[in-house]
Design a protein that fits this description.
93 residues, mainly alpha, two-stranded antiparallel sheet, 6 helices, 60% helix, 4% strand
Length: 93
């Protein structure tokens, strides 16, 4: 999956009040991975990383990422967003 706009990824993360480390922990990656995605140092990521980031940020993955030819994905189901939204609420409570 290709990052559409690294700065937008950063804005969304900050809007949801996650640090890079918090988001990285939630998707089981390093803080450096989030940093590289947000600064353009890493142009692509796996489908799982893209969907995880988008879900935790409460954004459809298509807003932040672009599927490459070999990454054809169906839209993420609303139930997936509901699960992550519920987790996020519990974390911030």
């Amino acid at each position: 999956m290709k990052v559409k706009d690294p700065a937008a990824l950063r804005r969304w993360r900050k809007q949801q009040r996650f640090s890079q480390q918090q988001l990285a922990t939630l998707i089981r990656r390093s803080q450096q991975t989030i940093h590289l995605l947000e600064t353009g140092g890493m142009k692509t990521c796996t489908e799982g990383v893209a969907i995880g980031i988008a879900a935790w940020l409460g954004v459809p993955w298509q807003e932040l990422f672009e599927a490459e030819e070999h990454d054809i994905l169906p839209p993420v189901a609303d139930s997936t967003h509901a699960i992550y939204a519920d987790r996020k609420k519990r974390m911030h409570a």
